[in-house]
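Quick one, probably user error.
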């Protein structure tokens, strides 16, 4: 079973995904995204919390890209947080890591709006040690406030 729990956090909105995001469930994410686009109650970013996402197929990835595009058209950011390792590797292999903003956790994604570089890449400018590990096919535990954006 798939669910999208929506909560407001200041100027931001958080979509907490739970379960399997696939062909049969993408309509729920589309509905949540469309509702946010129509109501526009906040001008801040949409943070998609993937911590409880157990599976994501190509339909789910397509829906995340659609949401990113729709937010961009309205000058709003969409940030992914707590992305499972398998999905992170897929983003790396397909180049989506250069398009989608990915953060280690929701707090890092939300903190990116607060001016400081909390939650953003540090180091080489290419990415973090975690990104390099994903490219090599290994996993590194997420560090607090680690993440990156394109």
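Nope, works fine. Designed sequence:
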């Amino acid at each position: 079973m798939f669910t999208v729990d929506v909560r407001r956090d200041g100027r931001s909105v958080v979509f907490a995904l739970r379960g399997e995001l696939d062909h049969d469930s993408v309509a729920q994410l589309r509905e949540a995204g469309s509702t946010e686009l129509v109501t526009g109650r906040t001008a801040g970013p949409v943070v998609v919390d993937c911590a409880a996402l157990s599976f994501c197929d190509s339909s789910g990835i397509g829906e995340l890209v659609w949401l990113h595009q729709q937010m961009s058209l309205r000058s709003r950011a969409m940030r992914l947080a707590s992305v499972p390792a398998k999905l992170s590797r897929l983003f790396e292999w397909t180049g989506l890591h250069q398009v989608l903003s990915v953060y280690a956790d929701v707090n890092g994604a939300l903190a990116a709006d607060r001016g400081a570089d909390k939650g953003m890449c540090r180091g080489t400018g290419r990415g973090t040690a975690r990104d390099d590990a994903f490219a090599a096919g290994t996993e590194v535990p997420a560090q607090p406030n680690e993440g990156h954006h394109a």
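The radius of gyration is 14 Å.
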